[in-house]
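$ run holo --ligand "heme C" --emit tokens
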Amino acid sequence: MRNLTITLALFSLLTSSIIFSEEGKKLAQKNGCFACHSMKLRVVGPSFNEVSNKYDHANNTKKILMKKIKNGSRGNWGNVPMIAHPKISDKDLDTMVTWILHLDYQAN
Ligand code: HEC
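-- output --
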């Protein structure tokens, strides 16, 4: 029984991260995030995989990262600042950050 519960939990985790993957990646492309970020290599900013490895999946972490994208950020990965993105909705920020934070579950 316990194994079944764990299997089901893992399965829903996997399927939900695949859904985030589609939506989050599309939004990141649409919003020009890939001008400075790539999946695996450091470009102007850290790779999204690096970001995913650095942070946990807590709700609070997500909120902090959403705020950093919205208001801009500097000093966490080096001296190059990330510009502010004031026009992106909280819903879209939420989807993108959820996608980024769950990249460490995917073999990509
Ligand atoms: C002009 C270049 C640029 C663009 C465009 C950009 N970023 Fe960044 N991003 C950076 C840099 C540089 C950093 C590292 C900032 C730092 O050291 O605090 C960063 C950091 C981050 C971080 C990690 C923040 C932290 O404190 O660890 C996330 C998450 C992120 N970016 C997501 C995004 C998303 C999503 C978009 C698209 C909406 C985006 N970025 C667009 C340059 C950019």
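-- notes --
The chain has four helices and no strands.
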